[in-house]
Amino acid sequence: MPAAPATLVEIIAAKRDGAPGDPAAIERLVAALMSGELADYQMAAWLMAVFFRGLSDAETVALTDAMLRSGQVLDLSRVPGIKVDKHSTGGVGDKVSICLAPLVAACGVPVPMVCGRGLGHTGGTVDKLEAIEGFRAQLDASDFAAIVERVGCCMIGQTAEIAPADKRMYALRDVTATVECIPLIVASILSKKLAEGIDALVLDVKVGRGAFMKDAGAARALAEALVRVGTRAGKKVVALLTDMDAPMGVAVGNAIETAEAFDVLAGGGPADVVECTLALGAEMLVLGGKATDTAGARAALRAAIASGAGARVAERMIEAQGGDPRVVADRARLARAAEAIVVVAPRDGTVARVDALAVGLAAVAMGAGRSRADQPVDPAVGILVEKRPGDGVRAGEPLARLLVRDRSAALPIAERVRAAFTIDDAPPAPRPLVLDRIDDRSSTPAAGSG
Amino acid sequence: MPAAPATLVEIIAAKRDGAPGDPAAIERLVAALMSGELADYQMAAWLMAVFFRGLSDAETVALTDAMLRSGQVLDLSRVPGIKVDKHSTGGVGDKVSICLAPLVAACGVPVPMVCGRGLGHTGGTVDKLEAIEGFRAQLDASDFAAIVERVGCCMIGQTAEIAPADKRMYALRDVTATVECIPLIVASILSKKLAEGIDALVLDVKVGRGAFMKDAGAARALAEALVRVGTRAGKKVVALLTDMDAPMGVAVGNAIETAEAFDVLAGGGPADVVECTLALGAEMLVLGGKATDTAGARAALRAAIASGAGARVAERMIEAQGGDPRVVADRARLARAAEAIVVVAPRDGTVARVDALAVGLAAVAMGAGRSRADQPVDPAVGILVEKRPGDGVRAGEPLARLLVRDRSAALPIAERVRAAFTIDDAPPAPRPLVLDRIDDRSSTPAAGSG
């Protein structure tokens, strides 16, 4: 008898048994999920088998491609130049996209950016942008392309048309304990990013307490896999491994983070937000062919800050997306809850640590984030983290300020924010923001089967 | 904050991560599956995690117990004596239950037996019994108990009320490549058997080409796990590891297997069927307290054959279940397809091997078995395997006979049956029927987590 094509159960069994990688089988599986031939419980079993057996890079490329092709792929061919996007694996206080995209666009590299919403302790760029009066994050594909072409950048939310197979699979992973699996994370991230019609991608893989990856080894493995698979999928990809142990910058919340990003465009902003913006932006300019090295790229970005070119692109983008562009110059127009609870230092010393996870969860509890995907967020509330690791403090000096609607309801949360600070006698060892840089020459092959 | 009870996703993640065994979590999972709180895809992910991580014996006991308690547990307290059943992991030509239960009952040990239907290459006792005109395998619990009490044995099919959680989980395992997992097999078998209200159980774990376990190591591991877990669940359990490389006996089919079992009750029958019946029956009599050792038990069983006591119990049981009891003495009353295709030896030599899997699949193709659970079976068709490993043959001498409805349709199947025979010059090494015996003193601890 001629060998029959593998059944769907045989495909699951082959992965379970660690058979050599089979990209065609993965393409078949995703198509069967979308057609209804493969049941959710079969996909769930396969996902758990992948958790144990991994995927080869060729399989991860096939999964990325199948998820990407399950929906709309944006056509940005009308936009001249090398289109470059940035993706962050998520952190607390990470508002970098909001200043980064306009700055990079101001330097001549088009940035088509599809952003996420906050979930769990990590915030989302879409929620932050929607703190701008009138801003519309849900645009159709042709408006998106037109704004990228005219303004240089456009920032929208995920649409139902982009990578629906990823949505189905992510929803399953979320309830079947199969989220924490590098090849599945890689395919999920890349399928959505590649659907934007980009040519190159800079990844900000965060590591530490406030990151999805708490462990440096796992973060590095994710960064390497993203670079390898993205490169095999035909894109130019660079990843930076960046510190997310303490919250980034001062502001943790929606409107206050947007304001802080605009501070950067105005030449101010906290040092770590500025540095992260310059480090990521420099990679984007080099990939986009607008700088030959990162030193030159940094100089161009600084010039775009100094000249106000970045701020002007931000204003034009916000205006094109229905928002009030005056917020870029006049941050006081952004919502800000009136009541403040001040959290003070219990003793003299040096801030040894600020637990980003604890701060992020406190912000969720205040209404700035969501624990379920269908919850609304309050743009006006948030936490100002006024002391950072390494800062000296005196007993009674403010550590953080909670911007709240209702003081008494927020008092237990203030206690949690206070507990997020560790005050010590000796200053902590300094931690660099950018821990490592990975490109297609520095990543090592996959450990997955096949 | 006090530790919150684990969520269902956390229970899946704990198994995924190889956390110490948690019997309470398993109880919770099965209850949640039956209440609808746990989705099928979550159970599928857990099952795949169990495939990789295993279950501790305490977890397997908890799973068995939870599946058992998901349905009706038969109450046989009105039946005096130690109730003993036998379970076989399934083979080709295994009709032993049909002569075994009446013989053991004739020796004074009550046998409440819930039997399976054929699926894939293995036959099922219910299908074989239903070849008897009028025989009803679907009885309610009180009729079942009454017949066991009055006759000494009763043989019925699985009911919807027995272990519905096992049915749900087995249906999922079947389509998610999680069938081949020892603790899941153990819990599935034991939950159904313990629901019969038995005190002791003899297991016939088959090994070889025609068995579910093709490998002796895996079969032994399954037998040991069944004994360990069954013992922990409070039952007396013994397992025999028996050879299932060639089909058992001569007949492979429904009515012809039933006839062959009655041959044994009449003092005849193929030597391997007789030996398997005596070996398993001896264990049952010892567990049932009607013999002090297997030698004495064998003598009692032989006496029950010689006196016709076993045949009389079979007649009474069949009559009580609505069937025609005359078939026990007059096997010609059983259906038998009229057309025979004779498969002959292509050369002189010795039969080295008869591939039980190939013969079993040929029988399914003829209509004697089913490849899907909802297919009907034809009681009258089957294969008579006339030569066994070790038998000398001459070219042109019959190896097997196919009893078919339609000769021309069956010719390709006859070719498959011929190919199941390997004829060699030298005789094969003799294989004992009973390869090993495992009781609660000979089994080793579980390798599963926790």
Order of secondary-structure elements of chain A: HHHHEHEHHEHHEHEEHHHHEEHEEEHEE
Strand proportion of chain A: 15-25%
**Shape assignment of chain A:** globular
Major β-sheet profile of chain A: 4 strands, mixed
What structural category characterises the helix and strand content of chain A? alpha/beta
Taking pLDDT < 50 over at least 5 consecutive residues as the criterion, the unreliable ranges of chain A are none
Strand segment tally of chain A: 13
Query: What number is the mean pLDDT of chain A?
Result: 94
Distance between the termini of chain A: 27 Å
Helicity level of chain A:
40-55%
Topology of this structure?
The structure is a homodimer.
Chain A lengths: L7 H9 L6 H13 L4 H14 L3 H13 L14 E5 L7 H11 L4 E5 L9 H5 L11 H11 L1 E5 L6 H12 L6 H13 L5 E8 L8 H17 L3 E8 L7 E3 L1 H11 L5 H17 L6 H13 L2 H12 L18 E6 L4 E6 L1 H11 L15 E4 L6 E2 L4 E7 L2 H13 L1 E4 L9 E5 L12
Q: Can you walk me through this structure?
A:
- The structure is a homodimer of 450-residue chains.
- Chain A is an alpha/beta fold and 450 residues long.
- In chain A, 43% of the residues lie in helices and 15% in strands.
- Chain A contains 16 helices and 13 strands.
- Chain A has helices at 8-16, 23-35, 40-53, 57-69, 96-106, 125-129, 141-151, 164-175, 182-194, 216-232, 255-265, 271-287, 294-306, 309-320, 356-366, 407-419; strands at residues 84-88, 111-115, 153-157, 200-207, 236-243, 251-253, 339-344, 349-354, 382-385, 392-393, 398-404, 421-424, 434-438.
- In chain A, strands 1-4-5-13 form a four-stranded mixed β-sheet, with helices on both faces. In chain A, strands 6-9-11-7 form a four-stranded antiparallel β-sheet.
- In chain A, helix 10 links the parallel strand 4 and strand 5 (236-243).
- In chain A, helix 2 (23-35) runs parallel beside helix 4 (57-69).
- Chain A is globular, with a radius of gyration of 22 Å.
- Chain A starts with 7 loop residues before the first helix and ends in a 12-residue tail after the last strand.
- The A-B interface holds A 9-10, 12-13, 16, 39-49, 51-52, 172, 174-178 and B 9-10, 12-13, 16, 39-45, 47-49, 51-52, 172, 174-178.
